[in-house]
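Training component of the fellowship. As part of building independent skills, the fellow (R.M.) carried out the full modelling exercise for a liganded target. The chosen ligand was zinc ion. The inputs are recorded below so that the supervisory panel can assess the work.
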Amino acid sequence: MKAKSGLTRFHNCFILRDSAIIKEDLWIRNGKIENPEHIFYVEQLEADETINCESLLISPGFIDIQINGGWGIDFSYDSENVEDGVHKVAQNLLSHGVTSFCPTMVTSDKEKYKKILPHIKKSPGGKHGATILGVHLEGPFINIEKKGAHMDQYIKSLDKGIDTINEIYGSLDNVVMVTLAPELPGATQAIKDLTKLGIKVALGHSAASLAQGEEAIKNGANLITHLFNAMLPFHHRDPGLVGLLASTTNKQVYYGIISDGLHTHPAALRIACRTNPAGLVLVSDAVAAQGLADGNYHIGPQRVTVQGGKAYVEGTKTLCGSTANLDECVRTFKEATDCTLEYALETATLHPARALGIEHRKGNLNFGSDADFVVMHPKTLKVLSTWIAGECVYKCQSNGV
Ligand code: ZN
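Fellow's submitted model of the complex:
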């Protein structure tokens, strides 16, 4: 009997690679994507298993960098059994093609950070759920004028820069991203310090001018949180944070967009992606109601009412997060902007990976990258199966038509 090569070959499929969808086999070994040329000509090995994909599409796995919860779990609210809650969401995300995510906490009481943060550890994905890349902390260092659903009494100033940050959050070990308002006193130093620690800084819930935004980018920030929402509207004399999309800074700025069909008008989506195509990152910004029926939920300490799939701060018409899944956002975005399929997929894969600086291992199907991917119907874009590190972690019962 021949020795096992450990190779799996996905055959008869279309794969997204280098911004093009090409008909090519995908080779996997030890959880990574392999170079077939090397296998044929140097190693001279054959696959142990060949999977016929029947002309389906293979996209890199989706990466959600802003998600507050889902399936009844709110990452900022449920401080008992945090691990169980995160696990529940991580597992449910698999059916939506999400292979990695950043659990997101909104502005919360100091005690909540201490209780919750140490329990959301960075961890690799598998059958148990999507990879946890680290926590995205949205607030409490935001501008009260642009608070959205964040609660006044927990919003904090940044007087002592990183010392204040450490004092409020406690440990930053599990954190990969912080959204703050760059116009707050002390923010400049905090941005520099967070960047030095390898934590990405996103600008949001902010009334910053373009000049303040540019200063923040110069000091290390590289993202904007949910573009258009909770910031100054575009003004031709001072375009505010929105202006960063066309700023002359030579650094690529990434910006999260919620394309659930509610938060951002299709024309605004088109303006964004035509102005700065490489920076667009789809986020779900999903709340606990994701995957569940209308009703009453929480986002952090704030009560939320979901009606007709729209999440509002209780008793108001203020939108707070979405109930959409990231795969739905990809479909909505493609329809709204009439962009190419390649581009739509990259906004939920390659772009978020680049924004977090992990594109050497995630967000693409390059040789050497993690074998995290989604098999989809090429027309309906329905997720048919999800794979993490080369292992099938979800399989849909329907054929996706
Ligand atoms: Zn927000």
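The panel noted the following from the submitted structure. The chain is about 20% helix and 25% strand. Residues 138, 148, 205, 226, 230 surround zinc ion (CB under 6 Å).
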